[in-house]
Write a structure and sequence with these properties.
Length: 312
């Protein structure tokens, strides 16, 4: 009842504010005019607003076509940017992809996760059909210390030998499907599995590496074992006495700067540029504390320009 009374009061006030003017030629189409603009712009009551909304609902704002397409485009782009999971593919599709891999690519995949390990090592026919593969069954020596038979693998079937680096040593070839002077797989193998080379020796026309671990030759693209891991008859000492092998290159052993006393390290820091000091401070904790606790080193360094530190 209060709402109805308010609405009637508002309607009567509107009627009182309207004044009848004399008819003219220009005023026939608009016989009624508002007497005062202030009365016309008075804010309406809440009940009147609700009544007008129910009687004449405002149309919903229409989204332009170009904005709708851009929103859909953003959604589609965000969906496309989601990382594709190779492991979500069914086994048949994964096996199809393995057929296009080289033997070194299969080795890298087996070291990635358990699914790749079981997919490839349970089906060694893919290894035999891969590029760069050479049959190792006839040359596979189980009596060698690297090929000793171990207990059955918990993830693989019985009598299954997983793909490993000793199988590929001196047999399989890397970079078999690349251009003649490219060494992508050779460099990847040496960066991933090889240790630092200490020296090289030439033995009966082919090059060996002195050190520990595996390495891949850049000329023949085959994986080899470094000489210090071979038996005694292949050591460098025996090679020098017999004259069969001659060292052709040796890399000097660099001393560790961290073993030097602090005074000598500070003397070395004096000859560094400001950028060299920045690199050293990001190397280890000792360099970080040596340099940052003595800002006078930074001030004396080459390329340094003094600036007042101001808070942002």
């Amino acid at each position: 009842m209060t709402v109805k009374a308010e609405f009637c009061r508002e309607d009567s006030s509107r009627k009182n504010s309207e004044v009848r003017l004399p008819e003219t030629k220009n005023s026939r189409s608009t016989p009624f005019l508002k007497a005062d603009k202030q009365t016309f712009h008075q804010p309406a009551s809440t009940a009147h607003k609700q009544h007008c909304r129910h009687k004449h609902p405002s149309p919903k704002p229409q989204i332009p076509a170009f904005t709708a397409t851009t929103k859909m485009g953003r959604k589609s782009r965000s969906r496309k940017q989601l990382p594709f999971k190779f492991l979500m593919l069914p086994l048949e599709l994964r096996l199809e992809i393995y057929e296009y891999c080289t033997v070194f690519s299969l080795l890298i995949l087996t070291h990635t996760c358990r699914t790749f390990y079981t997919d490839i090592n349970s089906r060694l026919a893919f290894v035999g059909a891969s590029k760069g593969y050479n049959d190792y069954k006839a040359k596979f020596d189980y009596e060698h210390e690297y090929f000793e038979r171990s207990p059955p693998h918990p993830l693989l079937p019985n009598d299954t030998v997983p793909l490993c680096i000793p199988m590929m040593c001196n047999i399989d070839k890397l970079d078999c499907n690349s251009l003649p002077r490219t060494r992508s797989e050779v460099d990847t193998f040496n960066c991933t599995y090889s240790t630092q080379v200490t020296s090289y020796i030439v033995r009966k026309g082919w090059c060996c590496c002195v050190g520990k671990g595996w390495w891949c030759c850049a000329s023949c693209h085959r994986i080899k074992r470094q000489v210090e891991d071979y038996p005694e008859e292949y050591t460098v000492a025996r090679a020098r006495t017999t004259g069969e092998e001659q060292p052709i290159e040796e890399q000097p052993s660099y001393g560790n700067i961290l073993r030097l006393p602090l005074d000598l390290r500070l003397t070395i820091y004096d000859h560094c540029t400001v950028f060299n000091l920045l690199i050293l401070s990001h190397t280890c904790r000792t360099f970080y504390t040596d340099i940052n606790n003595r800002q006078a080193l930074v001030g004396r360094s080459k390329g340094y320009a003094f600036r007042h530190l101001t808070a942002c």
